[in-house]
Amino acid sequence: MPLTLPAHIQALDVILDGLQTNPDAGFKHPVFESLSIHDQGLVRAEITRLQAPCNTVIDMRAVAPNACQPYGFGQLIHLLTPLGIERFESENHRYGRYSVGVFEALQQLQYEMTAGKADATQTHSFVSPTLQFFNYPQRSSERMHFSINVLLYTAVETKHHLKTVDLSIMGLQVKANKNVDVKLGDNVIIVFDGLANEYSTIANTTIEYDVVRVVEHSDELRIFLHRAQAHNEPQVTEFIANFIRGNKYRYKINLENTINAVENKVCEQYFTPRFPSLPVYISHQVDKAHPQSGALQPKFAMSNSGNANILSYWQDEQHQQRIGNLVSQSRIEELISKNSDQREIFVYAFNHVKNNKVYFYSASQSELEALPGTKNILLSYGAHKASWRVFKLQLSHMSPTQAYTPLSIPNEGHKDAKTENMPPSARLMKHLIDLRYIVLVS
User: What distances in angstroms separate CA 81 from CA 88, 102, 138, one per listed residue?
Assistant: First the structure.
């Protein structure tokens, strides 16, 4: 019967099938022994590769987003379809552990599902949501869910009957039909006619608002308004503050920004201890005699378990930190001189130990180009050293004021909020005041 696969691939399958029961039998199988010495070597090398342990998480949501479920194995949690779990378990039994072979078998299954060769649900692309760290929407006052009829007058005195969504001292959100002609920056008049029965004074007061945001939903508009003349309307400010204070337990406070802040903070606290790159904070010591110049030098670094190897690489024989050799003033100036979207350089580095002393050598691409005679020597010699590394440096601006991140809730929202919303102490800011840049080392 003719073989449907090349002989060495069939031999590979024969050996793998008996790997857990009788690993030596496969190498004595006629299919394997009939191979040439070269093909036998290929089969042995491929088996070694496929048996290597694997720590990569398998995520099948890209091919079946609605059919995946968490599947824990060892310290990893994969996201697999029922068919994927079945294939994983059979391949894991075949190899005896989660190995490269198991991972590649699941990759092949995903290809078959995408091509329609396996039983799978309709495929969809999965786009991971993007989070911007330290993006905490902050409010200066509480915002209360509150639905009531209001009148909105535009600049051309067109009147619209709308309903509110929520209310704060300085702002108001209303929902409207799509035929309401308002746009960003418009100045409008609001009358709370829905309060006429209980609060006739405020119901007869016209309040100016600016349109700061318009969001289009499927069948309506959400219009976000900000009070334009709050400083001239103390009686309105006092009424709204007292109204919210007296009714917030009945109508509930809008916590949308707080929920977003909590989600953001959870992701930050998971990611920050595992961040593989090393942020190095650069201070700019201004020379009073020459204000346009000054010393640029590393001052702080944010170390964690994921990037500690970078700092340990730049420790000398006395365990002193020498990362300043990598992030030098000349390289910082080179990064600053580049366009804002191209501020990155690559630095080649190695070290040499002699007489129990560690000597560090490093050069950026531009530094090597300036010394063409040295370039080939350094690269050829350094590349053969066990300490050979290639670092990527990326620069971005920063400001000491970024150290102040108040809570998402206003001072009156919680008994501890006022304390937590205090800016950093002068003692701390004294150490941060001269920070101007962050160099990310990867």
Answer: 10, 15, 41
Q: Judging by DSSP bridges, how do beta strands 389-397 and 435-441 pair with one another?
A: antiparallel
Q: What is the CATH number of domain 144-258?
A: 2.40.10.220
DSSP letters spanning 62-84? TT-TTT-EEEEETTEEEEE-HHH
pLDDT in tens, 70-121: 888 888 889 899 899 988 988 888 888 888 888 988 988 888 888 765 554 4
Q: How many CB atoms lie within 10 A of CB 192?
A: 24
Q: Give the tokens for residue 74.
A: 């060892």
Torsional class of 294: left (φ above 0), alpha (ψ -120 to 50), beta (otherwise): left
Distance CA 269, CA 255 (A): 21
Question: Distance between CA 78 and CA 89 in Å, rounded?
Answer: 12
- Cβ neighbours of residue 192 closer than 8 Å, sequence gap 6 or more: 148, 150, 199, 202, 203, 205, 207
Q: Please, are residues 306 and 273 in contact by the beta-carbon 8 Å criterion? A: yes
Between 141 and 103, residue with greater pLDDT: 103
Q: Please, are residues 70 and 78 in contact by the beta-carbon 8 Å criterion?
A: yes
Question: Which of 170, 189, 190 is closest to 237 using CA atoms?
Answer: 170
Under DSSP, is residue 214 helix (H, G, I), strand (E, B) or coil? strand
Here the tokens at position 320 are: 């002193």
Q: Where are the domains of the chain?
A: 7-114, 144-258, 275-441
**350 DSSP β-pair partners:** 361
The whole-number average pLDDT for the span 252-270 is 80
395, 344 contact by CB (below 8 A)? yes
The separation between CA 439 and the C-alpha centre of its own chain, rounded to angstroms, equals 18
Q: What DSSP string runs through 155-183?
A: TT--EEEEEEEEE-SSEEEEEE-TT----
